[in-house]
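User: I'm new to structure prediction. If I give you an amino acid sequence, what do you actually give back? Let's try with this one:
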Amino acid sequence: MESARRTAESLATASAATFDQYLRGLDSMAAALALHPSVVALSLTECDRLFEKILRGQPLIRNILLTTADGTIKGSGVPATNARSRIAMPYIQQVVTAGRPVVSDLAVEPLTQKLTLMLGYPVRSSTGAIAGVLALGLDLSQLHASFIRIALPTGAAVALTNRSGLVLARSSDADRYVGTTIEVPTLAGHGAQTAAAAGKDAVGAERVVATAEVAPGPWLMSADVPVGGIAGAWAPWGPPALAAVAVTGSLLLFLRTSNGVSRQLGQLRDAASEMASGGEPSGAAGERLDGEVSQLYDAFANLSDTLRQTRANLDAQVERERDVRAMLELLQGHIVRQERLAAVGLLLSGVAHELNNPLQAIMGGAELLERRADFPADVRDEVLLISTQAQRAAEIVRNLSRFGAQRPALPAAIDPRDVISEVVQLRRTDLEAAGIVWEVHTASTGRIFASFTEIEQVILNFVINAQQSIRSAGGADGLIVIRSSDADGLVRLEVTDNGPGVLPQDEAKLFQPFFTTKPFGEGTGLGLSVSRKIIESYGGTVGYRRNESGDATFYFELPRLDESRG
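Assistant: Good question. You get back a string of structure tokens that encode the predicted 3D arrangement of the chain. For your 566 residues, that looks like this:
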């Protein structure tokens, strides 16, 4: 009985510790997700895509669900047939009222229609108010599968229950027990304490049930172990004749068995050493052991499997927490960079405004001097040069003012050739200083309906990426070619460079947020993802093509404006 109790308590404690670490990892992941810009903005499309990607690496999570405070769905990791409806689940109001994470009771998840436990977390806006509720739905069927992988003694079972004994998952007979209530020993306190109680099953066999608390949630981990083995094989008090026969038999067999027991204990010691070093115990050695020594060997093997599984789970949890911490640091860096970009935008707008006044005076004065008929030809040429350069400076100032604007201009009918001209004006000096030759081929004649500033931002991102690619190669004779053309009702723009191109394994990730191949501090990983978002918002497509010579071409296509309809 005592051996069974200790085994049950050990199993309950180890299983609770493993599940406790997993829940803490979910808390860390949810905390990072709650700070993600798409989640804070309650962006439906972006959250769907983000949650679906996360679910691929989280087999124990059935769904990730984002709602507003009134229950309107703003993101889901699984397709929703009743897309974007309003749901009414108690955990939403509980999170909004308490302002902290909560755990729901066993309930049917509204989108998957499966029994689940919802872990709810508040999502706060920039002002600190609760803007939404993020929920992770645990997959109880997968919890059952994870319990099956735990090495258990024959006839033993592990179950996850709430404090009332409602079974949420079980290592065996899950269909029979999940959703029912069982009797579990009452804990005297919280934390790592355990409790055990003896009883009998339906056929009268003695069993011991032990429970341990799972700290982050209102749950208990219970282990059910049958009483058996060597504990009841010998009665401590028997008839005198039986005792005498036992003593005599023991004396007669002592010399014969001493060598065998010594040999078997040596094998057990070797097997324990193998387990301690992380290896697998030898199956052949186990077959040569007899009686109680064989049972002790099996107990060692079960304990080794349990410890090995726990260690693997802890290693995986550490790796998950490391990934979550890296994501959080990346998000924090992104917020800092966004604030810096906003400050730079304000600075650019102010500088452009201050430079515009003296430039207008210079241009006006040059225009008056050009009208003077008494100036010699050489003086007139100098005045013309002043006027031309002042107009060029004014054009650069207008570009800076537009690029530094906090809000993009409203969509309008624009000519891509005008946008290309302004981008070249912005980058001309930097490209010439880097020794990079640029060519512009504008074969397109059509116009597009879009924001001038946003299309300029996309082309500028392509040109800057091309320039950085050429610089990373460290070679001379850099070349950037900008082309525009019309085809099949579309306006197509391409930016090609003769840099080293993109590695094949990175091509699929080019337009993902935060992905960059540049050294730390030289890129945010947002330029191409923002460009894709801009182009797709106007009904276009954006992409990348590796050329035969190995260099890279980034392009986008937008619908050509049909001006014949007025």
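You can read the tokens as a compact description of the fold. Here is one thing that stands out. The first helix runs from residue 2 to 34.
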